[in-house]
Amino acid sequence: MGSGHILVAAFDVLMKIYTSCGWSERDAAKSIVENNLYGLDIDDRAGQLAYFSVMMEARKYNRRALNGDLAPKVMAIEETKFMTNELIAYVANGDKTLQEDLSYLKTVFDDGKEYGSILTVKELDFDRLYRRQCLLSNKYPSQLMEPWKQSKEKAEFIACAKSLGYTDAQIGYERGYDANFGSFVRCGAVIILDVDEMVHAQTQGRIGMFHDIKLLAGQNKLSNMVRRFLSDGFDVYISADHGNTACVGLGRIMGSGVEVETKSHKMLVLKDFADKESLIQKYGLVEYPKYYLPKEYDYLICNVGESLDIKGEAVMTHGGMSLDEVVVPFIKIKAVQNNG
To answer: Tell me, what is an example of a GO biological process annotation in this record (predicted)?
Structure first.
């Protein structure tokens, strides 16, 4: 990337392409910065200079470029020597897959500034996004604080419980089968990730998934946890944030926008993407009408039995073609005399 001179040259070429397609210079400059230019360097100072160069080039075509939240996707490689095992475990908060991914990133980037462009980073599974938040917060995705992240999930659940009249001391939020609420808790959420992790690691299709689920059920971890909560006087509601189904890959799409499903690739979420129609035609995607979702994005969904994975590859992936999987049925287990 250097100081950004290559990015500036590419900016001018892209500007000619955009304007020849009927874009105004102002809109084209914004789209180029957000969707077309990417840079990475081992030197912090070079990263700063490249950032400045791209912003000045954008300012040449768009006077308001410096007034908003426009941010070039250029940066310097950050090493991960500061990431201790204790820190990784704390951030993962019981999420086994996330802990493994963070450990992998630490290994890759420990000496990142020495290796630079020869680093190869595999695709990671960071797709636990808005669905579970919707279940815990009783909100549509468009109403969430940060619909594409999970950093606010606990806060969303607590806010929902408070709106129902519970106090801080009466609200619990835990992960894992050993979750245990204090005597004051009256409304709690427990996050269990076993099935999600098994499906994403599944290479034997639907039969393999059924086999894994059968083994998991035989361990009685979920039923034992439910019985424990029932004996404590709780009513228990069990739900899932999405389903899973077997699909055949249509081919991978890279660099086309904000990709929500980084592992399963059942859908794409795009922002200011100029060639959306070609994606729809090439892959037979269906455009979702944005009901209850942030309106600034475009939502493209694969048909049933298809996903944006390696062409011809059979995979287990998230549910059908409906984005409304956030509205799923609950199983209610009520604590009565003969139950548990």
So the answer is: methylation
